[in-house]
Each structure stands twice: as C-alpha cells, then as structure tokens.
Amino acid sequence: MRLFLKKITHPFLKLGLKLFYLKPRKYSYDGIKVLVHPEVFPPHLTLSTKILLDFINPMNLENKTLLELGCGSGIISLYASKKQAIVTATDINKIALQYLEKASLKNNLDLEIIQSDLFDNLQNRIYDYIIINPPYYPRTPKNTKEKAWFCGENFEYFEKLFKQIPNHITNSSNVFMILSNDCDIEHIKSITSKFDLNLKIFFEKKILGEINYIFKIASK
C-alpha cells in the first residue's frame, strides 16, 4: 500500500484515508503525542512528516526562531519546541490549530499558534528556520481539508509561497521544504526563478520506491 501513499488521487488511497480517518487518530514521536482530526493532514499514512521529524532530530535549535508553515497535526512544531526552539506554528485549518493547542498543553510544550494562509498574518517576522510540508498536486482544492493536498490548478500555492518567502528570511536563515518524486518538481523549481530564489536538494530518502527530497530554499 505504501507505493500509493502519496498518490491522493488514487481511488484505493482515497477510500483507505476515508475509512482510517472516520475518527481522530493518535500519532506520536519521541514521547510527543498528538490527536489528528479527520479534517487534518494525516502523518500516519504518509512519509513526509516522519522524514522531517528525523531530519530535524540532530539539529541544535535552542533559542532559534522556527516557523512551521502549514503545521497540520503540529507534531513537528511540538518536537522543535521540545528541542528548545522558539516556535511559531501556522495553518489555514482552524481545526488543526485547535487540536494543536490541546496537544501543546498535554505535552507541556510552549509555542505560538497562528491561523494564517502562508505568511499573510506574519508580517515583518524573520525566522532562523522555516519548515514546509506543502501541498503539491495541481488541482483546485474544494475545501480547507483539500488545501493540505492540492496546490491549485496552476500551482498558485507555490506562486504565493515563493513571492512571500524573501520578506521573512535573511542570508543566515534555513528554509527547508519536502517534496516527493511523485510531484512536478521541475515546474515548482521554475517558479522559484521568478522570485530570485534557489531550490537545491539538501537531503533525500527513498522508501519503497518513493523518493522524498528535502530542498533548501535561499535567495540567489
């Protein structure tokens, strides 16, 4: 089944997700526990969340400002807080943020939680680290839940993302975004060039035929 995990348009996966998420599901990492609502991006049946958690595991994040842009379950934000980062977690999904607030209290971890469409409600903020697990299937989302998967027919999510990023980083900032070989990486790369950004592979991991790449985004 994992061969189809990232192919959200595949009928088998769509049915599996629907059945699995008839109710909130628990997810944990390194002692941190969250409850994931059916309307929130599922870390259980996808690879990207676990890869990002393992990726930041060895990082020294103490007293570093870290933004998880589109946090979903928020477990990456909670883990960064555990590593003593100064964390801001954002999402467009109100349900995701409500569940994250409860999880932060249960895990006794402090972080700032803001509802925002990308950087819209983060004006004039600069971050040491930004972590992004983006939607990347080119289809217009029908509702908030689908915005976790679909980036718009013409990749509108990435157009807005790359336009906004330069206002929130410095030359010393570290911006990491995960993408799968299941998406149109070359098209996404072509969008970065419009905004004087570089997108370079920083890390990659292959699991059962699927390659996930963590890209570092920086100004040219």
What's the rounded overall pLDDT mean? 92
Please state how the strands of the largest beta sheet are arranged side by side: 5-4-3-6-7-9-8
Structural class: alpha/beta
Q: Overall 3D geometry?
A: globular
Report the helical percentage: 25-40%
Number of strands: 9
The fourth-level CATH homologous superfamily is Vaccinia Virus protein VP39
Main beta sheet: 7 strands, mixed
- Oligomer kind: single chain
- Give the low-pLDDT segments: 1-6
CATH-scheme architecture: 3-Layer(aba) Sandwich
Strand content: 25-35%
User: In whole angstroms, how far apart are the ends?
Assistant: 40 Å
| CATH first level | Alpha Beta
| Order of helix and strand elements from N to C terminus | HEEHEHEHEEHEHEE
CATH topology: Rossmann fold
State Rg. 16 Å
- Helix count from the secondary structure assignment: 6
Number of domains: 1
Question: What's the quick description here?
Answer:
It contains six helices and nine strands; from the N terminus they run αββαβαβαββαβαββ.
Search tags:
Rossmann fold, 9 strands, 220 residues, alpha/beta, disordered N terminus, 7-stranded mixed beta sheet
Write the layout of secondary structure elements.
Blueprint: H1 11-20, E1 25-29, E2 32-36, H2 48-56, E3 65-69, H3 75-82, E4 86-91, H4 94-106, E5 112-115, E6 129-132, H5 156-164, E7 174-180, H6 185-193, E8 197-207, E9 210-219
Parallel strand pairs: 3-4, 3-6, 4-5, 6-7
Antiparallel strand pairs: 1-2, 7-9, 8-9
Helix pairs in contact: 2-3
Protein described:
- This protein is α/β, with parallel strands linked by helices.
- Helices cover 26% and strands 26% of the residues.
- It has one domain: 3-Layer(aba) Sandwich (Rossmann fold).
- The chain has six helices and nine strands.
- The strands form two sheets. Strands 5-4-3-6-7-9-8 form a seven-stranded mixed sheet, sandwiched between helices.
- Helix 2 (48-56) packs parallel to helix 3.
- The longest helix has 13 residues, at 94-106.
- It is globular, with a radius of gyration of 16 Å.
